[in-house]
């Protein structure tokens, strides 16, 4: 078994992964704020960390993967002010949409999916600990984290205290002791969601929820914390500061992983820029599996420019993989090919893993059954190639040539296995579609009748 290497944003190096407890690998990933449909950029971390979780499950006996749902947030409040919809209806509907969209991309559900509003007590507990230890202060119904109280503040994002303060000077609230201090708790007026707290009725800041939910489900120290690179500052810097100061002596996350941004014409896909496609928009144009492959063709740390051409290429690649599998329709997944495992253990190098899979596909198309078994096994770790070739070609191909060739390969395999009834059934099915087969010395050819 190769060692797993992961790039750690905290040390800015690729490091050998050493679990805190190899009998239970613990990973936390920041989940969606549920006020609107997920766009393709939001899907990137979901697919990337799904592959990380699948790989960890191959390497270790148990993995606990936690991804939260942010269901209290000012973006949610702003949305319901426009629409008048009850908050619980908006967040429940958006969560269900998110689940459906991510399932369409082949992402397995995490082991736990805590909602922020169900963990207010834990957040209050952490805020209290921070106040007691001098890392936070209450002012005008707010509680703020005092960045100057934490000499390590800025370590994750690599910013100096001076840079951080300069950046924060834009809007300085009067109750802040220091411009860089950030909100742990804030007051809610009667028309906004709020909970009773030692500081009056209010609601949590965004960062504290992830400190509370990771602590509750994974403990003070865990293995991997993931999210998009846009979260490094301030979200992850602040999460880390809160957790380390509230639980002295702990490590919080050992390895910080960050996926690069999905872009459109060189700009981050985001709701605020308005340059986004929802996952649903894209699912109307292409199968979920092609979208997933598009996201995995680029290394997770690199920028990925989304284009229709890239999507079309991903679909063609899947046509080829499924053609190779169709040559051996009954072959079960074999052992995971060593070269695929090595690529994934090298900081989740999915482009390299896919290159190996293309070699396997070529071998399978040339008649190598073991290569087809390896291809299926590789597909399991990447969350690809999980449907039958017939199902793929029925749903996915632009023209039916690939489907016909897959059916012919299928028939050939049936004949080799002396399953003549199945071979005849495939011929009859094609004939019903007007496709006539001719068996000759050079194999089977076809024409439209
Ligand atoms: N363009 C993108 N490419 C890759 N990941 C992204 C992109 N935009 C957001 N993410 C990631 O999506 C996850 C969910 O984030 P969140 O729900 O806060 O997004 P959002 O704030 O609604 O998106 P936006 O940036 O469009 O406002 C985070 O891990 C974030 O890093
Ligand atoms: Zn978070």
UniProtKB/TrEMBL annotation:
Motif placement: 'HIGH' region: 32-42
Taxonomic lineage: Bacteria, Pseudomonadati, Pseudomonadota, Alphaproteobacteria, Acetobacterales
Protein name: Cysteine--tRNA ligase
Top-level lineage group: Bacteria
Cofactor(s), by name: Zn(2+)
Compartments where located: Cytoplasm
Family in the record: Belongs to the class-I aminoacyl-tRNA synthetase family.
A Pfam family per the record: tRNA-synt_1e
Residues that bind ATP: 271
Reaction(s) the record says it catalyses: tRNA(Cys) + L-cysteine + ATP = L-cysteinyl-tRNA(Cys) + AMP + diphosphate
UniProt organism field: Rhodopila globiformis
Record-listed E.C. numbers: 6.1.1.16
Keywords: Aminoacyl-tRNA synthetase, ATP-binding, Cytoplasm, Ligase, Metal-binding, Nucleotide-binding, Protein biosynthesis, Zinc
Binding site for Zn(2+): 30, 210, 235, 239
InterPro entries: Cys-tRNA-ligase, Cys-tRNA-synt_Ia_DALR, Cys-tRNA/MSH_ligase, CysS_C, Rossmann-like_a/b/a_fold, tRNA-synt_1_cat_dom, tRNAsynth_Ia_anticodon-bd
GO process terms (BP): cysteinyl-tRNA aminoacylation
Cofactor binding notes: Binds 1 zinc ion per subunit.
Intervals of motif 'KMSKS' region: 268-272
Domain (Cysteinyl-tRNA synthetase class Ia DALR) ranges: 339-393
Enzyme class, spelled out: ligase
One CC-aspect GO term: cytosol
Record's subunit section: Monomer.
């Amino acid at each position: 078994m190769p060692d797993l290497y992961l790039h750690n944003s905290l040390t800015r190096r690729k490091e050998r992964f050493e679990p805190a407890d190899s009998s239970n690998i613990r990973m936390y990933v920041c989940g969606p704020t549920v006020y609107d449909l997920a766009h393709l950029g939001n899907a990137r971390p979901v697919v990337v960390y799904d592959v990380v979780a699948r790989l960890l499950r191959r390497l270790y006996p148990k993995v606990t993967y936690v991804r939260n749902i942010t269901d209290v947030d000012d973006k949610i409040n702003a949305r319901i002010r426009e629409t008048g919809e009850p908050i619980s209806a908006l967040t429940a509907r958006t969560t269900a949409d998110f689940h459906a969209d991510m399932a369409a991309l082949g992402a397995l559900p995490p082991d736990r999916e805590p909602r922020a509003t169900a963990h207010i007590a834990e957040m209050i507990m952490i805020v209290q600990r921070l106040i007691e230890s001098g890392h936070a202060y209450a002012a005008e119904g707010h509680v703020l984290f005092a960045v100057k109280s934490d000499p390590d503040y800025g370590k994750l994002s690599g910013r100096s205290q001076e840079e951080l303060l300069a950046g924060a000077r834009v809007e300085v609230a009067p109750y802040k002791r220091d411009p860089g201090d950030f909100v742990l708790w804030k007051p809610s007026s009667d028309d906004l969601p709020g909970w009773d707290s030692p500081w009056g009725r209010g609601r949590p800041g965004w960062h504290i929820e992830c400190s509370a939910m990771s602590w509750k489900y994974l403990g003070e120290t865990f293995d991997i914390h993931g999210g998009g690179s846009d979260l490094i500052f301030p979200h992850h810097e602040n999460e880390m500061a809160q957790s380390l100061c509230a639980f002295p002596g702990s490590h919080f996350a050992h390895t910080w992983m960050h996926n690069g941004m999905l872009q459109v014409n060189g700009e981050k896909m985001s709701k605020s820029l308005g340059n986004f496609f929802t996952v649903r928009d894209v699912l109307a144009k292409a199968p979920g599996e092609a979208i997933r492959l598009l996201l995995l063709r680029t290394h997770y740390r690199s920028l990925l420019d989304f284009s229709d051409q890239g999507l079309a290429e991903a679909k063609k690649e899947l046509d080829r993989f499924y053609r190779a599998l169709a040559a051996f329709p009954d072959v079960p997944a074999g052992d995971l090919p060593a070269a695929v495992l090595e690529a994934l253990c090298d900081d989740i190098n999915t482009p390299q893993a896919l290159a190996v899979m293309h070699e396997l596909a070529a071998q399978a198309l040339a008649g190598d059954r073991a290569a087809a078994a390896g291809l299926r096994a590789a597909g399991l770790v990447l969350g690809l190639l999980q449907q039958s070739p017939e199902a793929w070609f029925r749903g996915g191909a632009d023209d039916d040539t690939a489907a016909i060739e897959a059916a012919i390969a299928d028939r050939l395999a049936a004949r080799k296995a002396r399953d003549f009834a199945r071979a005849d059934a495939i011929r009859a099915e094609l004939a019903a579609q007007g496709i006539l087969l001719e068996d000759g010395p050079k194999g089977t050819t076809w024409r439209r009748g």
